[in-house]
Amino acid sequence: MKGIVLAGGNGTRLFPLTLATSKQLLAIYNKPMVYYPLSVLMLAGIREVLIVSTPSAVPVMRQLLGDGSALGMELSYAVQDEPRGIAEAFVIGADHIGTDDVALILGDNVFHGAGFPDLLRQSRETLDGCALFGYPVSDPERYGIGEVDATGRLVSVEEKPRKPRSNNAITGLYFYDNQVVDIARGLTPSGRGELEITDVNREYVRQGRAELVWLGRGYTWFDCGTHDSLLAASQYVQVIEKRQGVRVACLEEIALRMGFIDADACYRLGVQMRQSDYGQYLTEIAYALD
User: Fold this and answer.
1) In the prediction, which pLDDT does 42 show?
2) Are 54 and 6 in contact (CB under 8 A)?
3) Are 86 and 37 in contact (CB under 8 A)?
4) What whole-number distance in Å separates Cα of residue 184 and Cα of residue 186?
5) Mind listing the UniProt keywords for this protein, alphabetically (predicted)?
6) Would you state the torsion angle of the CA atoms of residues 206, 207, 208, 210, taken in this order, to the nearest 10 degrees?
7) Cα distances (Å, whole numbers) of residue 135 to 51, 109, 144, 161
8) How far apart are the C-alpha atoms of 222 and 233, rounded to whole Å?
9) How much is the pLDDT for 121?
10) Can you give the three-state secondary structure of the chain, one letter per residue?
11) Is residue 127 a contact partner of residue 175, using CB atoms and an 8 Å limit?
C-alpha cells in the first residue's frame, strides 16, 4: 500500500496565520502539523509516501522532511497548484500509486488513541474496496456523514446533510484499492470545479464495497482547519505528552518502533537536535529500545 498526504489548499479559515505559509507547516504544540498525518501512515506500516502541496510549500516540505531516507522511508512530492478537490490527489498521484492500494490522509488531521496502529494494520489487511474511518460528532450537519447497516457496510454517504441519518462523521483518512485511480479520473467536477471525495465514496457504496471503521471511545480526532481546533489539538497533545512522558507523532520514534530504522540511527537523529527537548527525547528512546 502506498500513502498520500494531501497538504494543499490556501488555509483561508486560518488567515492571517496562513497568509505567508502553508497550514500544514503551522505548529501543533511542538511539531509541524504535517508530522501528525505522516505519522498515521507510518503506523499503518506504509513506507512510500507522496506529499501533495502548493507550489510555494513543496520546497519547504522537502527541506523539512527530505527524501525520507533518515526515517527508513521514501518520500516524494507533487504540486497541486490550485485546490481542486480531495479526489484530485489520486489523479496527481497515479504514477506513485501504480498498481498498489493507497491510503490518503488530509494534512490537517490529527488522530490518536490506544490500539490505533493495530486498527490501521487490520483495516489495511482486510481491505475490500474502501475503508473509511468514522468518528462520532455532536454536530453531524457540518460533516460528511456515513450510514451503515448491521454488518458495518456503508449504505449511504451524505455531505453536510440537513437531516443527518447518523452522527458518524467521515474523517480525513481513507483506504482504497487500486480502482480509486480510475474512479477519480472518471469523476465529473462539481459546481465548484472540484473532484469530490464524496463522489468516490458513493461509487464504492454503490458497488457494496465500502466499510466504515469505527473510531469510538478512546480515540481522538481533530480537523485543524480553524483557530479553535488548532488550539484544541495543541492543548490535547501538550496534556498527553506532559502527563505520560511520551511524544505524539514523533516520526523518529515511530520509525524505530516500526523497524524502519535502528536505535543507532534514531540516536543520531536525536543528536542533530540535542539542544531541544525533542532531540533529548530521541536519544533517550534510542538507548531504552536498543
Assistant:
1) 98
2) no
3) no
4) 5
5) Magnesium, Metal-binding, Nucleotidyltransferase, Transferase
6) -80
7) 25, 12, 11, 16
8) 6
9) 96
10) CEEEEEECCCCHHHCCCCCCCCHHHCEECCEECCHHHHHHHHHCCCCEEEEEECCCCHHHHHHHHCCCHHHCCEEEEEECCCCCCCCHHHHHCHHHHCCCCEEEEECCEEEEECCHHHHHHHHHHCCCCEEEEEEECCCHHHCEEEEECCCCEEEEEEECCCCCCCCEEEEEEEEECCHHHHHHHCCCCCCCCCCCHHHHHHHHHHHCCEEEEECCCCEEEEECCCHHHHHHHHHHHHHHHHHHCCCCCCHHHHHHHCCCCCHHHHHHHHHHCCCCHHHHHHHHHHHHHC
11) yes
Answer whether 28's CB lies under 8 Å from 36's CB. Answer: yes
Cell of 34: 504535517
Cβ partners under 8 Å of residue 30, min gap 6: 237, 238, 241, 277, 278
The mean per-residue pLDDT over the stretch 167-183 comes to 97
78 forms beta bridges with 52
Q: CA nearest 2: which of 69, 47, 42?
A: 47
Cα 101 to Cα 116: distance, rounded to the nearest angstrom: 20
Task: Find out whether the peptide bond into 16 is cis, omega within 30 degrees of 0.
Answer: yes
Q: How many residues does the chain have?
A: 290
In this prediction the pTM is 0.97
Burial class, 15, CB count within 10 angstroms (exposed 0-12 / middle 13-18 / buried 19+): exposed
Neighbour-count burial of 151, counting CB atoms closer than 10 A to its CB (0-12 exposed, 13-18 middle, 19+ buried): exposed
Amino acid identity of residue 241, one-letter, is E
Centroid of chain to Cα 261: 22
pLDDT per position as a tens digit, 212-234: 999 988 999 999 999 999 999 99
Q: What is the pLDDT of residues 91-107, one digit of tens each?
A: 999 999 999 999 999 99
